[in-house]
Write a structure and sequence with these properties.
Jelly Rolls; 7 strands; globular; seven-stranded antiparallel sheet; 152 residues; alpha+beta
Length: 152
């Protein structure tokens, strides 16, 4: 990883900041950092205990199991790392750079402090993260239903 914090950092439009006043977006940008990764480098490591939130801004990434099986692709503008931020448990998978990539990292501890200091910001962040996680759960339920129907 080649760390390169560039200021000012401007968050790209994502679901994370949907409905967030500009001053709260500015607060997120003030704690954010830019990191660059080479092909195959881990952005997130399975079982790591950090809770940083990341936004892919360039390149591509892949979520893989701890044994390396692909689970999902991450495209520019997508947010990842949210599960560890919410449940404060170790990371559930690896995230690996596909080609050269850049991410904006919002340090988890700093974000949690911001959410405490600015409850409106915290409500917007948690509502937006919850909405997306619910969509993913519904999608997984549909896929599981289809697989079970095929098995019967």
């Amino acid at each position: 990883m080649r760390a390169a914090t560039e200021h000012p950092i401007e968050l790209p439009p994502t679901y994370l900041t949907e409905g967030m006043p500009p001053e709260d977006v500015g607060r997120l940008e003030a704690i954010a950092q830019v990191r660059r990764y080479l092909d195959g480098e881990r952005m997130i490591t399975h079982r790591n205990t950090d809770c940083d939130l990341m936004v892919l801004v360039a390149g591509a990434a892949q979520i893989v199991t701890h044994v390396g099986d692909p689970m999902a692709e991450i495209a520019p503008g997508q947010v990842f790392g949210e599960i560890a931020l919410i449940d404060r448990r170790p990371r559930s998978a690896h995230v690996v750079s596909v080609g050269e990539s850049s991410v904006i990292v919002i340090p988890g501890e700093a974000l949690l402090d911001l959410m405490t200091e600015h409850p409106r910001l915290g409500l917007v962040v948690m509502t937006n993260l919850s909405r997306v996680l619910c969509e993913r759960l519904r999608s997984s339920n549909r896929q599981l239903g289809t697989l079970l129907a095929l098995a019967n």
